[in-house]
Amino acid sequence: MSGLLEGKVAIVTGGARGIGRAIVSLYAKEGASVIVNDLVPGSADEWVNESEYKDGLFPYYFDISDSAQVRANVLEIKKRFGHIDVLVNNAGVEYNELIGMISSANMEKMFKVNVFGTIEMIQAVSRIMARNENGGSIINISSMVGLRGNAGQLVYSATKGAVIALTKSAAKELAPKKIRVNSIAPGLTKTEMMDQADIEKLSARISNISMGRIAAPEDIAGGCLLLACDYSSYISGQILPVDGCTII
Ligand code: NAP
């Protein structure tokens, strides 16, 4: 049985855990060769080696916010696989701080990874996708807080708002090269990133979700599959909320 991504080469950043890992697993199940990027060397090795799709999984450890590392690794991936068809900019960092408590070091880190890292990856990979006969698909993981805002998340929401804006601009610029660019905006999703969340505030946020539960990483991966596969061939420049129908 052939999968929806058979023959495609996909890069997923921050793929060692959380939402990234769910995207990696679904893409590999659907037949893609998946480059599993993450920051800490070896962080994905154990589960990759145990995965039933391990033959299609290729860990590459580099910092997406370092342009020299990004260029060198993307070139190496192109040499090894011949083409790159899908890029998921998933890696992200989040520090929740009230306005009076914002630290400049955390602010810098969030912009460096969430915004500059996403741009570095788009720059390096779109050059390679542009040479494909059928272009490619770039998916940027933003967040519902980038659309709606949230108390205690001024800086994080600003970085995700930037991801939403850059998605729309990149889609317009890259459309003539047959490269589609879209964003998935997840709502609350059960990963380690949520471990620092305040339980009381969390319950209040869940009561605001029509489906009555927070997302599993696999819910977000499903949206990423739609945007990666050829069934979304005429969808570009869009922001797709995957948030269980959040009320406000
Ligand atoms: P996570 O569990 O913290 O995973 C993020 C991964 O990205 C980690 O493995 C992390 O590595 C990696 N990473 C961080 N900086 C990197 C860098 N410079 N280069 C390469 N990899 C790097 O996060 P998640 O909850 O799965 O979130 C994934 C994405 O969804 C993020 O963009 C996040 O903002 C977004 N999102 C999450 C939620 C949520 O509720 N969880 C909601 C909306 C949007 P380390 O282990 O070394 O830190």
Describe this entry's structure for a reader.
The chain has 248 residues and is of the alpha/beta class. The chain has one domain (9-241): Rossmann fold. Helix content is 42%, strand content 15%. It has eight helices and seven strands. It has helices at residues 18-29, 45-50, 67-81, 104-129, 144-148, 154-174, 199-206, 217-228; strands spanning 9-12, 33-38, 57-61, 86-89, 136-141, 179-186, 239-242. It has a seven-stranded parallel beta sheet with strand order 3-2-1-4-5-6-7, sandwiched between helices. Helix 1 links the parallel strand 1 and strand 2. The radius of gyration is 17 Å and the shape is globular. The termini are far apart. The mean pLDDT is 96.
Main features:
248 residues, 7 strands, seven-stranded parallel β-sheet, 8 helices, binds NADP nicotinamide-adenine-dinucleotide phosphate, globular, Rossmann fold, alpha/beta, single chain
Poorly predicted regions: none
The CATH C-level class name? Alpha Beta
What CATH calls the topology is: Rossmann fold
Structural shape: globular
Which percent bin holds the helix content? 40-55%
Biggest beta sheet summary = 7 strands, parallel
How many strands in all? 7
Question: For the CA atoms, what is the radius of gyration?
Answer: 17 Å
Q: Distance between the terminal alpha carbons, to the nearest Å?
A: 42 Å
CATH superfamily: NAD(P)-binding Rossmann-like Domain
Q: What spatial order of strands do you see in the largest sheet?
A: 3-2-1-4-5-6-7
**Helix vs. strand class:** alpha/beta
Number of helices: 8
Into which percentage range does the β-strand content fall?
5-15%
Q: What is the overall pLDDT average?
A: 96
Give the name of the CATH architecture.
3-Layer(aba) Sandwich
